[in-house]
TrEMBL record:
Protein's name in the database: Small multidrug resistance pump
GO cellular component entries: plasma membrane
GO biological process, one term: glycine betaine transport
Name of one Pfam family that matches: Multi_Drug_Res
Native organism taxonomy: Bacteria, Pseudomonadati, Pseudomonadota, Gammaproteobacteria, Orbales
Protein species of origin: Gilliamella bombicola
Keywords attached to this entry: Cell membrane, Membrane, Transmembrane, Transmembrane helix, Transport
Endoplasmic reticulum as UniProt keyword: no
Membrane topology recorded in Swiss-Prot or TrEMBL: Multi-pass membrane protein
Family: Belongs to the drug/metabolite transporter (DMT) superfamily. Small multidrug resistance (SMR) (TC 2.A.7.1) family.
């Protein structure tokens, strides 16, 4: 399987796990606690596979950048947490950085 596809699925698992972590209420809700543990486990496993061919710095930049934006959007939409203009601009810069890495970095390819 393509390493970037593995990285994409790792990010999705991490986003699900982090969203569930909030809902686990300090690991007192067993359902969300289990989803959190399974999500992080799957995420790190998939990330480890992706790191066989993607440099760790590049993978982590993509992982964290996309993860930050997705978690923030989920928190905004589903958990009714607000994002101000500075947060939105900052996330825009993060996404711009991910795009620049993927389009122009010779290390990323």
């Amino acid at each position: 399987m393509n390493s970037y596809l593995l990285l994409f699925f790792a990010i999705i698992c991490e986003v699900i796990a982090t969203s569930s972590l909030k809902l686990s209420d300090g690991f007192t809700n067993i359902t969300y606690s289990i989803i959190t543990i399974l999500g992080y486990s799957a995420s790190f496993y998939l990330l480890s596979l992706a790191l066989k061919t993607i440099p760790v710095g590049i993978a982590y930049a993509i992982w964290s950048g996309i993860g930050i934006v997705l978690i923030s959007l989920i928190a905004w939409i589903f958990l009714k947490q607000t994002l101000d203009l500075a947060a939105l601009i900052g996330m825009g810069f993060i996404m711009l950085g991910v795009v620049i890495i993927n389009l122009f970095s010779k290390v990323a390819h």
